[in-house]
Design brief:
175 residues; alpha+beta; 3-stranded antiparallel beta sheet; 11 strands; elongated; 19% helix; 3 helices; 5-stranded antiparallel beta sheet; homotrimer
Chain lengths: 175, 175, 175
Amino acid sequence: MLLKELKFDSTKHTYIKNITDVVNDVIKKAKVNQGFTVVSSRHTTLGIIVHEIAEPNLLEDIVHHSLDLVHEDKRSTRVHKDYKHPTKDYKHRCQDNPYCDEIDEDYNAAAHIRALTFSHSSVTMPISNGKLELGKYQEVAIFEFDGRDGKGKNPVRKRTVQIWISPFDEVEVID
Amino acid sequence: MLLKELKFDSTKHTYIKNITDVVNDVIKKAKVNQGFTVVSSRHTTLGIIVHEIAEPNLLEDIVHHSLDLVHEDKRSTRVHKDYKHPTKDYKHRCQDNPYCDEIDEDYNAAAHIRALTFSHSSVTMPISNGKLELGKYQEVAIFEFDGRDGKGKNPVRKRTVQIWISPFDEVEVID
Amino acid sequence: MLLKELKFDSTKHTYIKNITDVVNDVIKKAKVNQGFTVVSSRHTTLGIIVHEIAEPNLLEDIVHHSLDLVHEDKRSTRVHKDYKHPTKDYKHRCQDNPYCDEIDEDYNAAAHIRALTFSHSSVTMPISNGKLELGKYQEVAIFEFDGRDGKGKNPVRKRTVQIWISPFDEVEVID
């Protein structure tokens, strides 16, 4: 089993970012011809999707839908006079998690619910011929629901995504 | 690792279709007693679900909910005077994807968002005793969100679903 | 491959319950240092999630959102004068499933749709250093959408969740 960790800063609030080339580069570097890849998030407001990622307007439609469907907490730092999506009341405060030992004064229940609704904590993809076995329009991406730009009290979001590769000796095709 | 590809035409717009027997037949033909099966879609508007599939009224409730929750693009070929579900404006056009080299003049942002919300690009299921290990009401199905009947400008949808089987030598049950 | 079955009664309607310690205990008992765990539900109205589970107000926000977004069947035994979430008409009746050979006179289309929207029939998680490889706030939980308390005609819900463990010899970290 092979492991590659991707580490990056997530400074924009809600966005989708293609990581297909990164995953394929890891598979190539590991010289794995066939097997499975599990791409997994280590976060609860950033998930993984396999979807059509190459058309920017589609990504914008998806992001807008996620913001319209799951209303933002009225207390969120995102909600200001120019905020265009619906808001509502939630109970959750980040700092109430018993594991929380960092500065986090935001109210991100909506980001959690969007992650549950629109993404996965991990996705499993076959590898064949030394790369991800994907359809013509399929690519793998991270879906960030709660990036932080470092302005205000909350620090920039540090994110980690893991690429696990489990090689297999051969693939037998069944007619 | 064993691979079986299912290929079929998808001519109805939004529907759920049971493939449990097909997957179990592949497992039987491959003489695999225990292991994992990954059923994966090669499309971004057709996903896989494990759910209760045998009650047709439930499938109708699920399909109607998906059409009501995620509004159709006003420009879609589906939207005509008898269309009963909500519509709205999106930005996405199929032909704007840089990989698009076929005739596709439709507007299917809603189908993409429904696939993200209600289905999976792949599902992982255990195999034991030579068949899928599923509960009494569980079955595996494809959930199509963007079939095309071939009338109008867009051709019939050709779909491919892959069944990957990874056999294991034995299962040890932990008390 | 190792298998542990968790069996429990589910008497509350909609709730999220942490099973991280149970899964880690199974991994420890099985003396598995690295590999994959697949946690799978045998039900269509109870799914698995990997999410932030330790903050009770967040769980309440998630549960309320699921009840507000997917309207309950007007005929459901849950809907009485104090029911605070929206209701609507569905077609599904539990007893119409051809496999149904038990007393089940409820109307749970909404529970099915919530399970499809907010949970997974199975989740795949890496194991490293003898325990689940999870981020600081990530835990694994069951998300029950249709518990039954045994009052009225329908018996208490008996639930089974399976923990499948596939060990690997070693993990090689790629720089």
